[in-house]
Amino acid sequence: MRSDPVHSKHIISIHQPRLWLAGAVLILMVMLIALWMTFQYGRFVAGFDQAEYDQEIEILRNSLAEQTIKKESALRENARLSMGSNIQKDASSKINETLAECQAQTLKMDEELTFYHNIVAPGKAKREIKVNKVAMHPNKEGGYNYKVVLIQIGRHDYVQRGYLELSFKGRKADGTEVRLDLPTVATGKAKKRQKFGFKYFQNFEGWIRFPEGFEPLSIFIKAQPKSAKVPRVEKNYLWVDLISRGNEANVGQEKIKLE
């Protein structure tokens, strides 16, 4: 006789679920407390001191605050000094400009005074021609602007006539010394002998440019009056002296002693 299997069902119900929940929370808290105590014990064993740690943090915070104050103070001081420095630079620049203008005016006045002294020198019955000024200034074209001033001293009742010659002594690239006359180096049309005729003074001006590789050493000036009673004038000026003082108004100027 075959019997059918018997199927049984069992239903498990949890009575008082609040107690179970409270127990789980209690177990979790115990575990957390145990972990915290283990952490604190580890720090204690390692020599960790919370009070000392907090003190160091406070010291570091105070030091940072002090450094921040010092930095801001330094930035303000630097800004003040920079402003003062700019003001001082501007004032110094203006003073230098004023001094340069005064020096230029003084040089110009000295040049004019010397010029007129040389012309009207008293007690000079003898007529003479003098080279009063020689100036040489570099220009943007790579050459030089020159100016030569001749004057007559003594009596001025006679027009001095004659001719002026300019020549330049220098060294070529191979070391050979040569002399070049004015027409050779002049940028414009020029004669070897430039005529003059004056009672008081006469200017000679122009532009020159030397050949490539030529090193000027000196300039030679010759003034030859037509009158045999007036002596010839020959002057030689070192090039380095003319160029080194080329910004001054009285370069090469001669002052005649008053008698």
Task: Write up what this structure looks like.
This protein is an alpha+beta fold. The protein has helices at 17-45, 50-119, 182-185, 239-244; strands at 128-138, 144-153, 160-171, 177-181, 194-198, 201-208, 215-225, 233-238. The chain has a domain at 120-244: Immunoglobulin-like, CATH 2.60.40. Strands 3, 4, 5, 7 and 8 form a 5-stranded antiparallel β-sheet that branches. Strands 1-2-6 form a 3-stranded antiparallel β-sheet, with helices on one face. Strand 1 (128-138) and strand 2 (144-153) form a beta hairpin. The protein is rod-shaped, with a radius of gyration of 51 Å. It starts with 16 loop residues before the first helix and ends in a 15-residue tail after the last helix. Residues 246-259 have low confidence and may be disordered.
Characteristic terms for this protein:
259 residues; alpha+beta; 5-stranded antiparallel beta sheet; 8 strands; 42% helix
Q: Outline, from the CA principal axes?
A: rod-shaped
CATH architecture of the domain at 120-244: Sandwich
Strand and helix order? HHEEEEHEEEEH
Summarize model confidence as the mean pLDDT: 75
Query: Quick one: how many beta strands?
Result: 8
Strand content: 25-35%
Q: What is the C-level CATH assignment of the domain at 120-244?
A: Mainly Beta
Number of helices: 4
Helix content: 40-55%
Structural class by secondary-structure content: alpha+beta
| Rg calculated over all Cα atoms | 51 Å
Find the CATH topology of the domain at 120-244: Immunoglobulin-like
How many strands, which pairing sense, and closed or not: the largest β-sheet? Answer: 5 strands, antiparallel
Please give the alpha-carbon distance between the first and last residues. 174 Å
Low-confidence blocks of residues: 246-259
